[in-house]
Amino acid sequence: MIAMSRSDREAGVSLIELIVYVLVSSILLLAMSSILINSWTTQRNVTSVSDATNRGQVISSTIERAMRNALAFDVSADGTTLRVRTSLNGILACQGFVLTPGQSRMSLSSSTLTDNSTWAEWQPGVVPRGSVPFFSVTASTVMYTFDIQTSSTPVRFGGQAFARSSATGVTTPCW
């Protein structure tokens, strides 16, 4: 029979030590997984808000540019449609904007702005802010208010624009 010294018998890892190592490793992996998942969620939310901010700024700046150059404009009774006859040439002479829940449409034309349901889809995710209409008019100023949906909270947009050109009130050939 071979005699084992005390140090040889204690050279391995006991079952209890192995269980403790596995438990500690599992806790560390769970913590790291939680951090990674939270980082992905945060990145998704930030990307969504950044995208919505860009889309909303495009809508706002385009509406304001059209209104700055307006010779005449018209807002529909329901506050969803803005038509502008501008002092710009070519396809920018007649501009139309429709904001409805979930989408926006836009039309650029050198002639009559036809039925707004045929206008090109423009920016997705547009929603009204409560019961406030998308467009409203006070004297010669157009106010616009809308939100863009994101994966977290909506991004809010609002502003006003007025004509800097001498208003002619002539809507031909736009409508």
How would you describe this structure to a colleague?
- The protein has 175 residues and is an alpha+beta fold.
- It has one domain.
- It contains two helices and nine strands, in the order ααβββββββββ.
- The protein has a five-stranded antiparallel beta sheet, with helices on one face. Strands 6, 7, 8 and 9 form a four-stranded antiparallel beta sheet that branches.
- β7 and β8 form a beta hairpin.
- The longest helix is centred in the N-terminal third of the chain and has 54 residues.
- The model has no long low-confidence stretch (mean pLDDT 92).
Q: Which outline best applies?
A: rod-shaped
Percent of residues in helical segments?
25-40%
Tell me the strand order in the biggest sheet.
1-2-3-4-5
Number of strand elements: 9
The largest pleated sheet is described as: 5 strands, antiparallel
Q: If helices are DSSP runs of H or I spanning 4 or more residues, what is the number of helices?
A: 2
> Mind telling me the C-alpha Rg?
31 Å
The structural class is: alpha+beta
Tell me the count of domains. 1
Overall pLDDT level = 92
Alpha-carbon distance between the two ends: 109 Å
Uncertain stretches: none
Order of helices and strands: HHEEEEEEEEE
Q: Tell me what portion of residues adopts beta-strand conformation.
A: 25-35%
